[in-house]
Amino acid sequence: MNYVVIVAGGKGLRMGGDVPKQFLLLGGKPVLMRTIERFHTFDAQLQIILVLPPDQQGYWHELCLAHHFKLPYLLADGGATRFESVRNGLALIPNDAQGVVAVHDGVRPMVSVKVIERCFAMACKTQAVIPVTPVVETLRQIMPDGASQTVNRDAYRLVQTPQTFDLQLLKQAYQQPYSTAFTDDASVVEALGMQITMVEGNKENIKITTPFDLDVCERLWISTHSAAQ
To answer: Residue 19's pLDDT is what?
Structure first.
């Protein structure tokens, strides 16, 4: 069986409101539901594990009732760090389970099904996969003395989720002690000495952290669904 751990622990501080960003509406439905639906569309048999802070779970259940949201999932408690949250999600998967597991940000509802397919297919071959997009802006590196210099943007990529791995590999990686060097799941796996494979992501796969991001996603959502009608 294959799995996805969807981590949704944001408090919405940069959104300027009291409602956590994963619960804001996108196309009339909470962002987190849109994210879950993408993975269900990819594979209706995929085991979805949702990680939410305990103090947000009651509100989430109310939203599910209000929006008649009935897609199946397992629920894990969010931790003090993303590392702890992912580890809690992985703990719901049997230790002897085999397959592929993805870890995805709950506030990335616009990931394409093609990207999800690409990540899972490549993870079956190389065990550790991340979707990336090219850097299109000029990059400058800040030096210790405050000066800056242009760097070759072709040598860099922007990293997205779902980051996708052999299940036993990721479980092993998350048995390591937490380190501040762990900025994402790939960095946790790299600490075991594993090489990460990059695949093409989709530029619409925005991580919603500001009102501008939500506005862009809303416009993309309207455009996509208007074209489909």
So the answer is: 86
